[in-house]
Design brief:
By secondary structure, this protein is an all-alpha fold. It is built from 12 helices and 2 strands; from the N terminus they run H-H-E-E-H-H-H-H-H-H-H-H-H-H.
Length: 302
């Protein structure tokens, strides 16, 4: 038998063996990641749900008073849940228009030379630590808001939401830019051929076609905003009260967990209540991820 044929057959068998091992490696990696995720959900959820052996669900989700060291202790998390939702909504309402218009500029208006500078700068923008945003907001933004709006402290939902809007801009910009650039060119050409202006084409043809990708970017930015800790903790005011205005100091789920987790004993009702807050936050994030997947499937079917 020809040696070349023997070597070729041996090489083919090695490739098949390597493919088999690599396939098992991928399956093991996926199983390990899934196991870690479900373990985190199980541990946080199990520890958090122990709260309901002492605290009623109605009190936890509807009461606005939080006094773990009181007599009797009160664990009402409504102020933290509402604070997280309000801050996220402010961040999305401020950041989404800027992000989408910036993505339109980068994808369809900016010259290639400008885009080649903006895209790497955007990647560097993502690498800025959240504590830097929080410190700048603490030193610059909070005093400015105090002077401009005549409020007492400058801390609150608006300040934290404004900083979060800046922090989520890279997510909205980059993903929306990719979605806009993925729109088939013949759609633009057909619109222009029918007599539409370029701006009409961008607004009525390109943007609706890229809408599933843009919505995915917005929802992903919401997940980032609702889970942000350090910058929010530095600017929200950390007061367990339901916010009555955008400039009222309040607290969020993440900021309260950071502030109080060092003061609790594991297994106590206070500790379990903080775990329950983390579990609520986890459920909100998972819900947003499921929403992203649904939007992605809808976009693929269009």
């Amino acid at each position: 038998m020809d040696k070349a044929v023997v070597f070729s057959a041996a090489g083919h068998r090695r490739h098949i063996l390597y493919d088999k091992y690599v396939r098992y490696l991928f399956i093991a990696s996926a199983a390990l990641v899934s196991l870690l995720i479900f373990s985190i959900i199980f541990f946080v959820g199990r520890q958090g749900l122990l709260t309901f052996s002492t605290v009623s669900p109605l009190e936890f989700f509807t009461a606005a008073r939080w006094s773990p060291t009181g007599s009797p202790p009160i664990f009402g998390a409504l102020s933290f849940i509402s604070g997280s939702i309000y801050v996220t909504l402010v961040a999305v309402l401020l950041g989404t228009p800027l992000g989408v218009f910036g993505a339109l500029f980068m994808a369809k208006v900016a010259p290639e030379g400008v885009r080649s500078i903006m895209r790497p700068a955007l990647d560097l923008y993502v690498a800025i630590p959240s504590v830097v945003y929080g410190y700048i907001g603490l030193v610059v933004l909070a005093p400015a808001i105090r002077e401009i709006f005549g409020v007492r402290t400058g801390f609150g939902i608006f300040t934290a939401g404004l900083v979060l809007a800046i922090m989520i801009l890279p997510t909205i910009l980059s993903l929306s830019d990719d979605a806009l650039r993925a729109v088939p060119k013949p759609l633009e050409e057909a619109s222009l051929a029918l007599g539409a202006t370029y701006w009409q084409t961008l607004w009525h043809v390109v943007t609706p076609a890229a809408l599933p990708g843009i919505m995915t970017a917005v929802v992903l930015a919401m997940a980032r905003a609702i889970g942000e800790t350090m910058a929010v903790q530095m600017l929200i005011g950390n007061t367990p009260l339901v916010a009555e205005s955008l400039f009222t100091p309040t607290s969020t789920l993440t900021s309260n967990i950071v502030v109080e987790m060092g003061n609790t004993m594991f297994g106590s009702v206070w500790s379990n209540a903080l775990f329950l807050m983390a579990f609520v936050l986890l459920i909100l994030s998972l819900g947003m991820i499921l929403l992203i997947r649904r939007l992605g499937r809808r976009g693929a079917s269009v």
